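The instructor's notes for this session suggest beginning with a concrete chain rather than abstract definitions. Hand out the sequence below and ask the class to guess, before any prediction is shown, which regions might be ordered.
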Amino acid sequence: MTRVLVAAASAVSRAGLEAILAREPSLAVVGSATTNTSLADEIAEHEPDVLLVEFAGSDDDALAMLHVVSGDSDDGVRSSPSLVVLADEGELAVLASGLGAGVRGLLSRDARPNEIVAAVGAAAAGLVTVTAGLFGSLRTAATVATPSRSPRGDTATDAPLTPRELEVLRMIADGLGNKQIAARLAISEHTVKFHVGSVFAKTRASTRAEAVIIGARRGLIVL
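After discussion, reveal the predicted structure:
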């Protein structure tokens, strides 16, 4: 049985997605969440195999949300859920950067119920599902990509970190966990998770260790 957590800003959307999944005997909806304040807590509580998200927000919010979910967990023990995202076509192109960091499905917001169920099942099996239009864009991008470009986008043209994100990155480099960072900065653990996710997004790192290495290479921190 595949455990699925549903997340969407709209309660109506969450109910609709839950109803779609409930028709499939091999899937069990273990909880629901909004895509902002409660998502990280719900994942920690329910430990789903797959997270189905209907996303609506800015490009930066999208990338930060992906890395909050698919980045390494605080304790290094829990595995992150596979992610299936429903979004508009423009958002899907931005979210495609997360395909190597836990994202297993990118579907249009108006995907049919059978497509959603199939994508969730594929994600649970470790397979990747994308819309036909997005697949064509990814294939074109791969064709025109230059060999000299770093696979992680580790260049000076990447988005700069904010002063707060730099503080968080330095504390990560010192080996502090999210709870310790929250205590040091006098902010909530959820806020720390968001900053960590943003650091991951801007450095295009998949783990805390990788973010530290990239930060050091850019001269943002000293090891």
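Then share the key points. The domain at 163-217 is CATH 1.10.10.10 (Arc Repressor Mutant, subunit A). DSSP finds ten helices and six strands in the chain.
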